[in-house]
Amino acid sequence: MLHGFLGDATNWLPLMALMEPHVRCIGLDLLGFGDSSKPPIRYDIAQEVAFVHQVLAALKIESCYIVGHSFGGWVGAAYALAYPEAVKGLLLAAPAGIRDDSFCGRYDHLRPLLWRTPAVDWALKLAKPIASIIGQRPAVDQIAWFRQELMAQPAACSFLLDRLRPEDAIDTVEKEIYRLQVPTLVITGDRDETIPLWHSQTYANEISNAQLAVIPNADHALPQKHAAELAALIVPFLTSKA
């Protein structure tokens, strides 16, 4: 189980509780996230794929199903492309990894949050009283949390810094996923404002015989908020492939 951006393996605990009576579940903190090591390197999808491969080799797991959410779905798809014989099937929940140049412009205003200077933290602290007066305190608190998370996770910082421009998005997988032949289930929520529906549709359309399931009234936080709906889709999928 591969978590999303700024997440960790604990995001899967609600789903694990529902699935462990049926299958063995392994949640992994991707390289640079959670309790995994955080070396001072340039983080990219290839690094994460190599890390997953090393972990599975250490666990002596020759093949398995990969469940990936958002960023973890991107890593999972890239892993299946690199090691198709090691993947029994893919379960991709709102997967990232489809090139979308609109993302770059959408987050340009957040660029200062990546600056490693206390001036940004001081500015956010000073902004909170004003934000309270004009009714924007929740937004500022959210930005401050995002800044705190980024500073604590060098992988997230590195990944964003290297992909602020459209021309830097060179490790997306939409041009390669047509090569995947493994059984695949793509799941998304109809209220996801982080990963657009067409990203999931691209995975489902390009991967041979892939299935697409849309969960009503679900946002992007599928593992955390919609574990029951995920389990209701994933367990029958795994059972049918056993």
UniProtKB/TrEMBL annotation:
Key words, A-Z: Hydrolase
Protein name as catalogued: Alpha/beta hydrolase
Superkingdom assignment: Bacteria
Keyword Hydrolase: yes
InterPro entries for this protein: AB_hydrolase_1, AB_hydrolase_fold, AB_hydrolase_sf
A GO MF term: hydrolase activity
Domain (AB hydrolase-1) ranges: 1-232
